[in-house]
Amino acid sequence: MESQKKTSQPANKTSTSENDEEEECCANTSCEKNEKQKPSSPKQGDFSDPVYKEIAVANGTINRMNRDELRVKCAELKLDTRGVKDVLRKRLKSYYKKQKLMHSGAANGNTDTYFDYICVVDFEATCEENNPPDYLHEIIEFPMVLIDTHTLEIVDSFQKYVKPVVNPQLSEFCVRLTGITQKMVDEAETFHQVLKRAVSWLQEKELGTKYKYTFLTDGSWDMGKFLHTQCKLSCIRYPQFTRKWINIRKSYGNFYKVPRTQTKLICMLENLGMQYDGRPHCGLDDSRNIARIAIHMLKDGCQLRVNECLHLGEPRSVPITAPIEGAPAPQTPKKRD
Question: What pTM did the predictor assign?
Answer without folding.
Answer: 0.86
